TrEMBL record:
Keywords (A to Z) from UniProt: Hydrolase
GO molecular function ontology, one term from the record: adenosylhomocysteine nucleosidase activity
Keyword Hydrolase listed: yes
One biological process term in Gene Ontology: L-methionine salvage from S-adenosylmethionine
Protein name: Futalosine hydrolase
Domain of life where this protein originates: Bacteria
Organism the protein comes from: Sphingobacterium corticibacterium
Keyword field contains Hydrolase: yes
Cellular component terms (Gene Ontology): cytosol
Pfam families, alphabetized: PNP_UDP_1 (PF01048)
Domain Nucleoside phosphorylase as annotated: residue spans: 22-199
Amino acid sequence: MKVLVVAATLEEIKPSLPFLEEKHIMYLITGVGMVATTYALTKFLQQHKVDLLLHAGIGGILDPSARLGDIYQIYTDEIFGLGADDNGSFIPIEELGFGKRIYTEKPPAHIQLPKINKAQGITVNNAHGAAENIMRLQQQYQKPLIESMEGASAFFVAEQEEINCLQFRAVSNYIEPRRRDTWEIGLAVKNLNIFLQRFLNYFNHVR
């Protein structure tokens, strides 16, 4: 089974590059955001056969009691805000009849995945940082909720191409008014890459 590891930035998976190259596992750096991810991933899949797309990255979590650095498996991801504003009321794209905004993982068949925390994801163009908007998220979504700028794009492309897809994210910060001095990006990247290498070793052993 051919695995493709996908990340938005090189920094997110840089500690794993020697491992990936040694194991001859393909990887792709797409750039940040839904548009860049969709384009880069689609272009890559036009030229390479892939059986499992493994999207890895860091993200913010809505739950202030969560531990920064923890790893989550994102089982469903939403293109946040895809629809129309009807005088303050949101109409989802599904109700407009023009598509869908929620996509799900597609694990490989007959593979026992590691038991880790699971979370719902939202994919945004503008990371939340205003108290009023964050309060709306808390009212609308159940915990845990993890925010990224690429996750739903990976699920979308995988669905279109009928490819198995998993997404794992390490929590680097809380979804709160922006305070970079409280972020734990280093810890999140470290834990993400430890998990990524262990998972790929495990996956290679059991498949």
